[in-house]
Amino acid sequence: MASIATPPQRTGLLVIQPLKKRHCAECRTGPLALLVLEEGLPRCLDCADLGHLVFLPRGDTALTRRSREGSALSAVVVRFNRRRSRYERQGVLVEETALARAEKRCLADAEARRRRRVRDARRREAEDLRFTDTFAREIRRLFPGCPADRAQTIAAHASVRGSGRVGRSAAGRALSEAAVTAAVRASVRHTDTPYDQLLMSGVPRHEARRRIAGAVDTTLRGWHAGRAPT
Fold it and tell me: Within this chain, do residues 81 and 17 fall inside the same structural domain, yes or no?
């Protein structure tokens, strides 16, 4: 019988996923999906008194930790990687009851995390609404002629979380006059002038801005002076 590469010394029991077909040296069953080396000879899990354990693949750290903590008997499962010339962990063997308890705990944690995410999302939504209202009030303070619904639309667009827009910049969150004005100017440029059409027709951005600059400035001056557009 060809020898099996000697696994590394570890604390606790070690079970091997063999690369070649192996049979139990005691009961002759095989080929074995998992085996234990005793005095250099392969033993099946039943002969090694580990047959009542269930296999838990690696991947879920919390489930593995809790399963091993709750299992009176457990073993680490390894397989030899020829390319790397080393044994690599594949999972663990644990008692089925311990695994079931661990799964319940992890599911409870998952539900708790889900509820926390819902609470956080609601909190962020409320914060976003408050910030949008504050941003809209600042627009109306700087540009009293801007219609209230338009100010709210500008604020909502500029302050979308994760958008990278001016309302989410440090200056925007601080409600600096420059940031608020930039948001209003951008809205007027895209909504009240043919700027977008110029871009779609192939006019370079800087040239398109130059062409509509007068119309934008006129609207901003009117709003700043308290006059709504006619």
Answer: yes
Which single residue is written with the structure tokens 């008997």? 73
Q: CA-to-CA distance for 138 and 144, rounded, in angstroms? A: 9
Question: In angstroms, how far is CA 149 from the centroid of its own chain?
Answer: 35
* Phi–psi pair at 36, nearest 5 degrees: -120, 135
Going by C-alpha positions, the residue among 189, 180, 181 that lies closest to residue 210 is: 189
Q: Domain count of the chain?
A: 2
CA distances from 4 to 30, 37, 46, 75 (A): 15, 9, 19, 19
Residues 92 and 22 in one domain: yes
Asked whether residue 36 is assigned to any structural domain, the reply reads yes
Distances (CA, A) of 103 to 59, 64, 96, 108, 142: 14, 10, 11, 9, 57
Q: How far is CA 47 from CA 27, 43, 146, in A?
A: 7, 6, 84
Q: Give the span between the Cα atoms of 76 and 90, in whole angstroms.
A: 8
Q: What percent of the chain has pLDDT over 90?
A: 56
- Identify the pLDDT of residue 221: 94
Quick check: helix, strand or coil at residue 192? coil
- Rounded to the nearest 5°, which phi and psi values hold at 164? 80, 5
- Express as a percent the part of the chain with pLDDT over 70: 90
pLDDT band at 111 (very low <50, low <70, confident <90, very high): confident
pLDDT at res. 1: 44
Mean pLDDT of the chain: 87
pTM of the model: 0.52
